[in-house]
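Late entry, written up from scratch paper. The run itself happened at the end of the previous shift, but nothing got recorded in the book at the time, so transcribing now.
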Amino acid sequence: MAANLSTGDVPGQSDITSLIDKKQTGCLNGDDSTALESLLEGANALTSDCDEQLILSFPFNQLLMKDTYGETPKILRVFSNLLKIPDFDRASSAEALRILWFTEN
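Output as recorded:
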């Protein structure tokens, strides 16, 4: 059963945060002062504690059918049905379901 989603700021996009299983989210390399929980509650930034890399895990509580795109990061690798959050070595070598490249525009 599809949830009622609010319309996003970009035509054709919807806010899917209500579909995130927040108890199962994860972030590797995240700075504690900009926690993932804060980002999900509307904070403007999530920063790394050591370098430019972050691994984010957003499990959803139902199937999503629409693609969503943002302005950052520069590269987004999407994995599906992983049993646990991968480390950076595994994420860089594993086959991604989709790889998205974003420009500065």
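Residues 88-93 form the longest helix (6 residues).
(Scratch paper discarded after transcription.)
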